[in-house]
UniProtKB/TrEMBL annotation:
Catalytic site: S59
UniProt family annotation: Belongs to the methyltransferase superfamily. L-isoaspartyl/D-aspartyl protein methyltransferase family.
Protein name: Protein-L-isoaspartate O-methyltransferase
PANTHER family documented for this protein: PROTEIN-L-ISOASPARTATE O-METHYLTRANSFERASE (PTHR11579), PROTEIN-L-ISOASPARTATE(D-ASPARTATE) O-METHYLTRANSFERASE (PTHR11579:SF0)
Entries under InterPro entries matching the protein: PCMT, SAM-dependent_MTases_sf
Organism field: Methanococcoides vulcani
Length: 212
């Protein structure tokens, strides 16, 4: 079966998670097989995380879909991702913000920052900037961000990320060691911050100044 046909079957299967057509259409436009190591391309359209080297993973498609859905991403938004990994989640978010928006994605491991950069270039994305740094401190120079997506689990929500979230902004972040919860952080127009627990998840740890 061709990659596109396999992708269609995968995306159709995600509809049961209550994911909107807007997110599913964005995922349909991203060739996930270009974001996994070549020897794993055959598994790229299975709904599971896959190893990408350096003891890290590309997240399962349903998790990417759920996080994008919770973020309620609109065209033109400026978004920060912490944990580029393969670059796949950044690519899905780039589809959602369109040419008017921009994704800044920060990766701690130099070899993975290069991997994400290469994959995104090969897939043709121009509205994404990959930076190698400790993303637990956020990325102050381009703040504030309308949305923040953290793709590794933190001990607590890092204060710099709360500070760098725009008013009326939303952040999704897995929190916890062992038992992890996906937390949705919202900042209202007056700057008040609220927290909502979505449910249990499994992510690799956020390593850094505000991580483990
Ligand atoms: N979003 C990725 C994708 O689409 O492939 C998956 C990310 S993987 C589950 C988590 C990533 O977070 C790993 O690549 C890991 O190196 C990275 N990470 C962990 N701590 C970090 C930190 N302090 N700053 C930036 N990246 C970090």
């Amino acid at each position: 079966m061709e990659f596109e046909e396999r992708r269609k079957i995968l995306i159709d299967s995600l509809k049961i998670n209550g994911i909107s057509d807007r997110v599913l259409d964005a995922m349909m436009r991203v060739p996930r097989h270009l974001f996994v190591p070549e020897k794993l391309q055959d598994s790229a359209y299975m709904d599971m995380p896959l190893p990408i080297g350096h003891d890290q993973t590309i997240s399962a498609p349903h998790m990417v879909a759920i996080m994008c859905e919770l973020l309620d991403i609109s065209s033109g938004m400026k978004i920060l991702e912490v944990g580029s990994g393969s670059g796949y989640n950044a690519a899905v978010m780039a589809e959602l913000v369109g040419d008017e928006g921009h994704i800044y994605t920060v990766e701690r491991i130099p070899g993975l920052a290069d991997f994400a950069e290469r994959n995104l270039k090969r897939a043709g994305y121009k509205n994404i900037t990959v930076l190698q740094d400790d993303g637990s401190c956020g990325l102050a120079e381009h703040a504030p961000y309308a949305r923040i997506s953290v793709t590794s689990a933190a001990p607590d929500v890092p204060q710099p990320l709360i500070d760098q979230l725009a008013t009326e902004g939303t952040m999704v972040i897995p929190v916890g060691n062992g038992e992890q919860q996906l937390v949705v952080v919202r900042k209202d127009i007056e700057g008040n911050v609220s927290y909502e627990v979505w449910g249990g998840v499994i992510f690799v740890p956020l390593i850094g100044k505000y991580g483990y």
